[in-house]
Every structure is written in structure tokens, then in C-alpha cells.
Design a protein that fits this description.
Order of helices and strands of chain A: EHEHHHHEEEEEHHHEHEEEH
Largest sheet of chain A: 4 strands, mixed
Helix content of chain B: 40-55%
Number of helices of chain B: 20
Protein name (chain A): 4'-phosphopantetheinyl transferase domain-containing protein
Number of helices of chain A: 10
Number of domains of chain B: 3
Structural class of chain A: alpha+beta
Number of domains of chain A: 2
GO biological process, one term (chain A): lysine biosynthetic process via aminoadipic acid
CATH architecture of the largest domain in chain A: Alpha-Beta Complex
Number of strands of chain A: 11
Family (chain A): Belongs to the P-Pant transferase superfamily. Gsp/Sfp/HetI/AcpT family.
GO molecular function (chain A): holo-[acyl-carrier-protein] synthase activity; magnesium ion binding
Distance between the termini of chain A: 40 Å
CATH class of the largest domain in chain A: Alpha Beta
Oligomer: heterodimer
Helix content of chain A: 25-40%
Distance between the termini of chain B: 33 Å
Largest sheet of chain B: 8 strands, mixed
CATH superfamily of the largest domain in chain A: 4'-phosphopantetheinyl transferase domain
Number of strands of chain B: 8
Pfam families (chain A): ACPS
Structural class of chain B: alpha+beta
Shape of chain A: globular
């Protein structure tokens, strides 16, 4: 595989994982071929497979404190499930055990795998749906919303859209307006999460230009990847080809968005934990009999 | 009593009766370089951001910048005094390079950092003739290229490697191709890490002038373009049975990995220090953007003020760590390998996270490609490229991980950390290559926190907020104890930690704790001299609060006044202007 100069492999579509046991083969394949993968899961499915309370502490590690403060089974199960999804997804890329990993949180809440900067993860959940993105190329942000979520309304547009976006939305037929707004919302969430900012980056300060049509921006990866463009608040395109954006419609009736920055520039990124420590250095230091 | 003119004469070296102290000398040198470069925000300044952005767009190194680098005597800063240069310590080199790094990271990386990296390999491992040759090239502003070895977790600069073998004629034969070597086509000397056998550690270090090899043996490959620092003149070189004289070998044949490890401490300490200059510009430009937009007051709303204060605290953390690491190379040469690797590992992560938090302060200007706001985005891009990302982390983790078992409860305690480790004014002995090869790792900084906690009550008697600081240090000590417990549970020894993946998260938490120790040490010892802002513990409180949050421990609530104090200091230093680092030297713009 060569990414230098040649065409980039398309962004892979999200694949479903039924539980901690997988299937994970698609994710592994996507990471190997494209350096990025997306998985989605049903909270109800995973919940039915969760271990009993007394076995949970070692699975949570440092997240146990936060978990133990949550009130009620529903909140606790959802928290545990999201952490397990991240751990299992990362363990696939790192070739290690999910329990040996430690999740850490940036000062704005961005989740990371502590000690493993060869990968970046992002999580989004809404209702029963969990979406997790992972990459070895740079940074990633994902977001998902049910297609049925209503966003339409003038206030919403003022709060989350730039002037050029509002102008374009004015030309969208009424029945497609909500879909167009959802597309913008999820893309903005995904990009802002990729930057580690969550909702701190005001959504009126940057915009997206998406293809128009019955289901704007959503489609196969090949169609969508290069047609969503980042722009400044006045509509000027941001000329930065390290960023890629796409939206997907999931079979669960959700819209999913991904923002990915590729700065790795290595042809075959090896992400495995087992090869991360350099054997030559270890041998050289070891020879001094520490 | 000396008059003002006497002091100036003394600073410039004309007065033999009075020698300025180390702090005064470095401050005046930074001021001299700043004066020579001028206000970077001024339109029309050939060393200003307009010119730098223009050169970046053209993928060039500014020739004016390079001439200024040389005329201001920067090459001599890279060379130790014993070899005819003026480098009097690893802790000072990063400081004097910041004026260039804050303006033009591509120039500073190519002509400041890269020659330093290559030269360290020779000065610590080569013979007198090789050391002198390298010093001669660097001193007259010649270019140096470095061909890195390949790593499994490769980057663009760490993919592919050369091989070399002895031939019957007593010459070496070099083979292989590498697509990305910085300064490949202009280098007067190339330092190459070459594979010289089938064994795991069979590497050697070579130094040669690519212009003197037979043309049939070498082929220049095309330019390699990087995502950041676009002016970098990286390119490829292919060698086919290329003969090199035997004297090209630096140090012992086949010992290249251990030899390069001797040079890592200085390199690992200097890079994060230099990069603070780059981060200074990003923070300064975010403040300017916030002020121009007038969102919610002089520097914006509460979120913006918090991000500005937090970023400044993070820059000070990185500065404390690089100061401590830089001094450890000279003061604790046989123990400094882990501390310096920690510095290179954690500083870019802390600073990078802080700079991304400024994106919300920049708002629309975050995406500017033209005009003076564009420097923010360019510098962020540059930082990402020149830190070498994951491959550099993997190298550092390879140095840190083997040391972790030595932290376990019951393991012998290293010697207590000397106070001079934190005090910039104390002169340093020259680097000692043999002692740098001992890889001891025992800097004692983890234990320093417990000892510092005992000194805090006295140190805090004149300050508000003492309880908060004591609580934060207690939290850090609790984390240190937890790290020791977990270190004791790591399975395996020798190569065993290749398999125990718990060492990865543990390395990072250990790194955050050493960063906290460095901050406490610099504060307790007034590491950069008397200063009203640094004496007030507000910056230390915010720094430790952020480190404790990063380590994943609960933190006490932070009074709003703490961030307010740091934000006001940033605004003042942008207005005057002064450096956004420990020294806070007056800047030209």
C-alpha cells in the first residue's frame, strides 16, 4: 500500500460488532488497508453480555471511581459498555488485551489510550447506538444522531450555522431541511471532537459545504469522502488536504459522521503494542545489566 | 559599585574585573538575538511572520533568515566551548534558539536542531579529528544531514535504512536508499545510522561528506515534502556499493545503538526547550485574535481566559521539565537518560493539547491561511511534524520502560536530587560521553515530591493558597506511591517488559509525575532567579492542578483567581512584550 502521492483508500463504512467477542475481522482489515476503522454497536445487545457487578472493577481500571459514583444500573451499564467498546476496539489495533489498557481523559474530556499515541479513538452514543472510530493516521472524531431527530427551526440555524450555510439551507426543500441540518451538526461535532474541543469550538465559526440532494452528504464512502469541504465562517474553503470528512447512514436509522486528519505519512503504520518498544534500544540498555 | 556602562562592557566581555552571572548572560544574549530579528508582527520585516508564511507557501527556507542565523552567531551556540563554540550548557541552548523557533521553525529545525542532533553523535563518540571536523563545519554555518535508522513503528524519517560492510580494500561499502533525510542534498556532512550485521544491535554510525564519494556510488533522489515545516529541504539518497574511507566510522563498529543512546539525553532535553518558542507564538497569536474579536473583554470570555491561562501553565511545565532535563545531562550524566526521555515524551503532548485548546479561542481565525492569524495554524502543523510523533514516543518509551521496575517499593532509592538541578544560574561541567553511557535512570525526582512536601509549609508561610498547593502535592505523592506499587507488579525482567503492556500507561503517568517534580523543584529553588510572578505560587498551583487531572486523579476545586492571575500575566507579556516562559525576557514583538 502506498499513500504517498497515489490515491488514498476510501474511508471504510462502519461495521457492526454484536458484543465484546466481535466480529472484529472487518475492523482489523479496515485498519490494515485504510489506517482507519469505524464500528457501531447496540447498547442492548452488549448490555445482555456484561459481566456481573463483582467482576467489573478490573475491567474498568481507573474508570472505576467514576463508575461507582453513577446512580442506577442503566447509567452504570451504559458507562461500562462504552468503556468496553473503546477498550476492545483499541485492543484490536494494538494486538493486546483490553484489560491491559488504561483510558485517560484530556482536560476537555477527550478520551485516549494512555501510553499509546500510535492510535486515536473517538466515541459517540445516542439512545441505543454506540459508535467508535479508531485510526493510526492522526486524529479522529465521530458523531452520530438518529435520523428522526428534529433540528429544524430558525434558532437552531442561527446557533449552529455560518451565514453561507444559512444561505444554502434557505434553498433546501422543507422536507430535506432537517436532514441537511443533521448532516451539518454531526460533521461539526465530529470535527470539533477530533480537535479535542467538544462543543467549546463555536459551531458558527466554521462551516461545511456538503453535496445537495435527497440525502445530503450521506452515501458510500467513495462518494462522500472528498465531497464534504471544510470552510471558514465566510465560506472561504480551508485548503488543508490532511483532513477528510464523510457521513454515513447506518442500518439502525442513524446518521454517522467522521472527521479524520492524516498526518502520519508512513506507508505501513505498525500499531502493535508488542513491537512499540525498540528491541535494539532495550538490548543496548540491557547489556549494561540494569 | 559599577556604573551602567561597566555592566554593558562586562556583558559584552570587554571587562575582565566583573563577570556577569549565567542568568544575566543568557538574558542579554536572548535580547541581542531578538534585537537582531526585530518585531515578527511588523509587516515588511524580512524575519517577520509575513515573510516566514511566504517562504512556507513556497516550500523554501528563507535565505534572509539563514543569513541572519549565521550573522547572529547562532551556529556557535551549537558547539561546545572546548571545540571553539559558545555552548555552555544543554539547558541554555534551547533558550537561545527560542527566538528563531518562535519565528521560523523550519529554519530553526534545519539549521539549529538537525546539526545539533548529528553533531552530538560525533562529539560524544568520535575521535578528536572527527569532532574537530564536525565543529568546523557547524561553526562556519555548513549544513548537516542526519539519516536515521529504521524503526518498526516508523515515521517518514525513520523508514528504510542503509547497510554497510567492510571490503577487502579496507574501505567501507554503503548500500541502500532512504527517501527522507533532512538537508540531504546540501549537507557537507551526513551522519548515518547504518545496519552493519544481522544481529539485533548490529548498527554503526558513519560520518561522511556526500560530495566526496564517487558519483557512480550515489544517486540523489527527489525532494521529500512534509506536512508541516514545508520549507524543510528533505530528500532521498541512494547508495550502490559506494566506497567510503574507513575513517568514516564514528566510535566502535557495531556499537551504533549504544553510541546513539549517549547522545539522546542532550537531544531529548534540547528539543522540547526549543519548541517552547514555537508554542509562545501560538499562544501570543491566540491572544491577539481574541483581543481583535473583543469577545467579552480584553482577552475574551471565561473559556478563552481559562484556555490562555492553562496554555501558559503548560508552557511553564514544559520549561521546568526541559530546564531540569537539560541540566541533568551535565550534573547527573549517568542517571539522566530516563528524565530526558520523559521530557521529550511528555512535553510535546502537554503543549500540543494546550495549543489545540486555543483553537476555540482563535475561532474563525483558527482556519486562516493568509494574514497574521495564519501563523497559528502553520506553527501547529510544524510542531506536529518536527516532534516526529509516535516514533519519537516509542524511542522514549523504550528508554523509560526498562527503568520502571526500579521504582518498585523496596528497590534501592537513588541519591536525593541535588538542588542545582533546578537552578539555571549555577554553571555546569562539560558533557561526559562515558558517563552518559551508563543509563542509570535514577534521577530521584519521584522521591523528590515527598521531600518537597515536607518543605512546603515553611516555603508557603508568606503566600495565599498554601492549603491548595499542599493538597495538590499530597495528591501527587499518592500517585507516586501508586506508581511504585504498580511498578512492583510488572511481570518479567530484561526483555520481559516487551510483553507486559502495563508499562505503556505506567510510563506516561511516571512522566507526568516527573513533570510535577520539576515544577515544584524550580519553584522551591527559584530556578530562574528572583521574579515576582514566579515567586507567587499561582502558576505552580495551576500547573500541578492540570498535571493531577491529566494523571486521572480527583482534584480540589480551582479558585477562579488562579487562572485570572496567569491570564493577566499573559496579557501583560503580550503587551510589553516578554517571553511566555520562565525567563520572561523582553522580546522584540
Amino acid at each position: 500500500m502506498s499513500r504517498h502521492g497515489g490515491p488514498r483508500p476510501p474511508l471504510p463504512t462502519p461495521s457492526r460488532v454484536a458484543g465484546p467477542a466481535g466480529p472484529w475481522a472487518r475492523l482489523l482489515h479496515d485498519l490494515d488497508t485504510a489506517g482507519v476503522g469505524l464500528v457501531y454497536a447496540s447498547l442492548a445487545d452488549w448490555r445482555s453480555l456484561l459481566p456481573p457487578e463483582e467482576e467489573r472493577r478490573p475491567l474498568l481500571g481507573r474508570d472505576w471511581t467514576r463508575y461507582s459514583r453513577l446512580k442506577g444500573d442503566q447509567l452504570r451499564d451504559r458507562f461500562l459498555t462504552t468503556r468496553l467498546l473503546i477498550r476492545h476496539t483499541a485492543a484490536v489495533a494494538l494486538g493486546t488485551e483490553p484489560t491491559s489498557l488504561e483510558l485517560s481523559y484530556g482536560l476537555n474530556g477527550r478520551v485516549r489510550l494512555r501510553g499509546y499515541d500510535q492510535i486515536d479513538v473517538s466515541l459517540s452514543h445516542t439512545g441505543d447506538l454506540l459508535l467508535c472510530g479508531i485510526t493510526s493516521l492522526g486524529v479522529i472524531g465521530v458523531d452520530t444522531e438518529p435520523l428522526t431527530r428534529r433540528l429544524s427551526g430558525r434558532d437552531v440555524e442561527t446557533l449552529m450555522c455560518t451565514a453561507p450555510e444559512r444561505l444554502r439551507l434557505a434553498a433546501v426543500p422543507a422536507e430535506e431541511l432537517n436532514g441537511a441540518l443533521l448532516t451539518l451538526w454531526t460533521l461539526k461535532e465530529a470535527y470539533s471532537k477530533a480537535l479535542g474541543q467538544g462543543l467549546r469550538f463555536p459551531f458558527t465559526e466554521f462551516g461545511f459545504r456538503t453535496p445537495t440532494g435527497p440525502n445530503p452528504g450521506a452515501g458510500t464512502a467513495e462518494e462522500a469522502a472528498e465531497t464534504v469541504l471544510l470552510e471558514r465562517s465566510n465560506g472561504t474553503p480551508v485548503a488543508d488536504d490532511t483532513w477528510r470528512f464523510a457521513t454515513f447512514t447506518l442500518p439502525t436509522g442513524h446518521l454517522a459522521a467522521i472527521a479524520l486528519q492524516d498526518t502520519r505519512r508512513s506507508d505501513q503504520p505498525d500499531t502493535r503494542a508488542g513491537t512499540a518498544l525498540n528491541r535494539q534500544i532495550l538490548a543496548a540498555i540491557g547489556s549494561w545489566g540494569r | 559599585m559599577y556604573e551602567h556602562d561597566d555592566i554593558i562592557a562586562a556583558v559584552s566581555g570587554r571587562d575582565t574585573r566583573w563577570q556577569p552571572d549565567r542568568l544575566t548572560r543568557v538574558r542579554s544574549r536572548i535580547a541581542e538575538i531578538e534585537d537582531g530579528l526585530g518585531d515578527p508582527w511588523a509587516p515588511g520585516n524580512p524575519m517577520g511572520f509575513d515573510a516566514v508564511l511566504d517562504a512556507d507557501r513556497k516550500e523554501e527556507i528563507s535565505p534572509v533568515g539563514l543569513r541572519r542565523f549565521q550573522s547572529l552567531g547562532m551556529p556557535a551556540e551549537l558547539v561546545p566551548e572546548r571545540l571553539g563554540g559558545r555552548m555552555a550548557g544543554t539547558d541554555l541552548l534551547g533558550l537561545v534558539m527560542r527566538p528563531f523557533f518562535r519565528r521560523d521553525p523550519a529554519l530553526a529545525f534545519s539549521h539549529g536542531f538537525t546539526p545539533f542532533l548529528g553533531a552530538q553523535m560525533v562529539w560524544l563518540n568520535g575521535d578528536a579529528r572527527q569532532s574537530g571536523r564536525m565543529a568546523g563545519v557547524v561553526l562556519r554555518g555548513g549544513t548537516v544531514g542526519v539519516a536515521c535508522q529504521r524503526f518498526e513503528h516508523e515515521s517518514e524519517f525513520h523508514a528504510q535504512e542503509y547497510t554497510a560492510a567492510w571490503s577487502d580494500d579496507g574501505m567501507l561499502r554503503l548500500n541502500g536508499r532512504k527517501n527522507a533525510i533532512n538537508n540531504a542534498h546540501t549537507a557537507e556532512l551526513i551522519i548515518g545510522f547504518v545496519k552493519t550485521g544481522d544481529g539485533e544491535t548490529d548498527y554503526s554510525i558513519l560520518m561522511f561528506d556526500p560530495a566526496t564519494v564517487p558519483p557512480a556510488g550515489v544517486r540523489a533522489l527527489g525532494r521529500h515534502r512534509t506536512t508541516g515545516v514545508r520549507g524543510l529541504q528533505a530528500a532521498g539518497l541512494e547508495f550502490v556499493d559506494c566506497p567510503l574511507p574507513g575513517e568514516s566510522l564514528v566510535g566502535t563498529w557495531g556499537d551504533g545503538v549504544a553510541l546513539s543512546l549517549r547522545a539522546y539525553p542532550a537531544v531529548h532535553a534540547v528539543f522540547p526547550s526549543m519548541a517552547i518558542g514555537l508554542a509562545d507564538t501560538a499562544l501570543r497569536s491566540a491572544v491577539r485574535a481574541a483581543q481583535e474579536r473583543e469577545f467579552g473583554g480584553p482577552a475574551g470570555d471565561a473559556t478563552a481566559r481559562s484556555a490562555i491561562a492553562g496554555t501558559f501553565a503548560d508552557l511553564l511545565i514544559a520549561d521546568c521539565l526541559s530546564l531540569t532535563a537539560g541540566r541533568s545531562v551535565h550534573l547527573l550524566p549517568d542517571q539522566c537518560d530516563v528524565l530526558t526521555a520523559v521530557t521529550k515524551y511528555i512535553s510535546p503532548k502537554i503543549v500540543g493539547e494546550a495549543l489545540y485548546d486555543l483553537s476555540a479561542v482563535m475561532g474563525d481565525a483558527f482556519h486562516a491561511e493568509r494574514g497574521h492569524h495564519a501563523v497559528f495554524r502553520k506553527h501547529l502543523r510544524d510542531l506536529s511534524t518536527i516532534t516526529f510523533g509516535h516514533v519519537s514516543s516509542a524511542i522514549c518509551q523504550s528508554v523509560i520502560a526498562p527503568y520502571l521496575p526500579a521504582l518498585a517499593d523496596g528497590a534501592p532509592e537513588p541519591e536525593p536530587t541535588p538542588a542545582d538541578l533546578f537552578r539555571l544560574e549555577v554553571p555546569l561541567p562539560a558533557m561526559d560521553g562515558a558517563r552518559l553511557a551508563r543509563f542509570g535512570g535514577g534521577d530521584g525526582l519521584l522521591g523528590y515530591l515527598d521531600r518537597a512536601a515536607l518543605r512546603l509549609p515553611d516555603a508557603l508561610t508568606l503566600h495565599d493558597g498554601g492549603d491548595l498547593l499542599r493538597e495538590l502535592v499530597a495528591g501527587l505523592c499518592a500517585e507516586a506511591a501508586e506508581i511504585r506499587r504498580e511498578a512492583g507488579r510488572l511481570t518479567g525482567s530484561d526483555n520481559g517488559f516487551l510483553l507486559d503492556t502495563h508499562s505503556f500507561p505506567l510510563s506516561e503517568r511516571y512522566a507526568l509525575l516527573l513533570a510535577a517534580s520539576a515544577c515544584v523543584g524550580v519553584w522551591l529553588n527559584a530556578g530562574t532567579g528572583p521574579d515576582a510572578f514566579l515567586t507567587d505560587p499561582a502558576w505552580l498551583v495551576l500547573a500541578l492542578h492540570r498535571l493531577l487531572r491529566r494523571v486521572g486523579r480527583p482534584v480540589p476545586p480551582l479558585p477562579r483567581a488562579i487562572e485570572g492571575r496567569l491570564c493577566d500575566e499573559v496579557l501583560e507579556r503580550v503587551r510589553v512584550p516578554r517571553g511566555l516562559d520562565l525567563l520572561g525576557t523582553e522580546y522584540a514583538g
